[in-house]
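[User] I wish I could look at a protein chain and see how it folds. I have put the entry right below:
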Amino acid sequence: MAWETLIQSVEQVVGAAGLVRDPELMHSYLTDWRNAYQGRAALVVRPATTEEVAAVVRLCHDAGVALVPQGGNTGLCGGSIPDSSGRQVVLSLTRMKRIREIDLANETITVEAGVILRQLQEAASQAGRLFPLSLGAEGSCTVGGNLATNAGGTAVLRYGNMRELTLGLEVVLPDGRVWHGLRGLRKDNTGYDLKHLFIGSEGTLGIITAAVLKLFPATHSTATAWVALPTPQAAVDLIGHVRSLCADRLTGFEMMSRQSLEFVLDHVAGCSDPLQGPHPWYALIELRDTVPDAPLDLLLESGLGHAFETGWVIDAVIASNQTQAAALWALREGISEAQNHEGPSLKHDISVPVSQIPAFIERTDSALQQAFPGVRIVSYGHMGDGNLHYNISKPLGHADAPFKAQEQAIMQVIYQMTSAFNGSISAEHGLGQAKPDAAAHFKDPLEIELMRAIKRTLDPTGLMNPGKVFATGLE
C-alpha cells in the first residue's frame, strides 16, 4: 500500500487544514489526557463534514488501513488512542461543530459529533430548554464520544444516559456508506432500532457524525444537600425515601467514602469539609423543579428530618445559594483529580443492582484488604443507578512500581466480585483497550459470540477501531 498516494488522496478531500502529519502537532491525538495510553499513527485526519468523513473512510477501506475515531479524547479506557504500529489513521471529529437544528415543538436538537458537551448545554439553555447530560469532562468531551461510550454522568437517575437521550443518528459505515437515521421520532416500530448498535460501540461499527437528541424543560429551582451517613446501606434506604417523597424532582444522588473526601480536601484548592468531624460515608443530593421558587429546601428538610429519626443520616447541610451548592459539587467532582496526586490510581467503573451496593462494598473491601493489606479504597459514584467508581490507591509509604505490578491481581478480585453480584465491569466508561480481555472472560460467551457476529456483519475487514471492545479483532 502506497502511503503517499493515500495521504495525497485524503488531502484532496479534507484540504491542508484537515490533515495533521507534524509529530509535535500529532502528539495530543496520540495520548490520552492522563498519559495512561500512548500510540502512533500514520496521520491524523480532521474532516469538516459528513461527506468528507465518508470519503476518507472509503479511501482507507479500499487501502486496507485501520481507522481510529476520536472526539474530545477524554476517555478513561484508551478507546480513542491508536496502537503502536504507526499504521493506523486517527480520524478526529472535532471540526464538525455545527448545531444543525433546534426543534422546540418536537423538543429536539440536532448536532454534529464534534460539538463539545458544554456548548450543547448552552445552546439548549439559550433556547429555554435543558440538555441534562452532565459530567466532569463536559468542557472538553464531544457529543460523538458521549454517544460512542453511552455516557452517563450525574443526572442519569432522572434523565437516563445517552441511549435514553438519543432519537436518531447519522453514521458513516465502515465501507463509506452513510446511514441517514436523523429522525426525531419517539415512536418508530419498523423493525430493529439500529441506533442502539452504534451507541456504546466505541467506534468499532461505524463513525457517528450527527445525532438528534432530546431536550427537556429548563429547571428553575434547585436544592442541594451534603449528608453524612453511617453506612452504604443507609444510602440505599435514604435514596428510596427521598425518591418516594420527591419523585422525579430527585435529579442527583451521589455517594462517596470518607477516603474519597480526604483526598479532595488534601489536594484540591479551595475545598473544605462542610461538616464538623469525619464521617464514614457521604451523599450529595440534588432536587430540581421547573417551577420558579419551588419549595425544594422544605421538601429536602422534611425528608432529611425523617432520615435523622431513623438513623440513616448523622449530619447534613443544605446549600443556601448557588455558590454553596457549587462548592458541594466540587467535592464530588474533584475526587478523580485528587486521587491522581496519591500515585497510580487503579480505576474500576462497575455497576451492580442498587440493592446490592452495600454487600458488594463490604465483601470487596474485605477481600482486597486481606489480599493487599493497606490499599486505600476510593469508592464513590452514582448511587441511583448502581454505578460505582471503585478505585484503588497504594498503601501509604509504598512505592509506585510494586503497587502497579499488582494491578491485574487487584482487578481480578474486583471483577470476580462484580460478577458474583451479577454486575457489569464497565458501567459508563466503555471497554476501550483496557477491558476487552476482561469482558471476554466475564461476559456470557453467547453475548460475545453475538457481538462478534454484529462486528463481522458491519465491519468484515476489521478496520474500525481494531483492538477496542474485542482484544483480538474478529478472531
Observations:
- The first helix runs from residue 3 to 14.
- The mean pLDDT is 95.
- Residues 368 and 413 are 7 Å apart (CA to CA).
- The first strand starts at residue 19 and ends at 20.
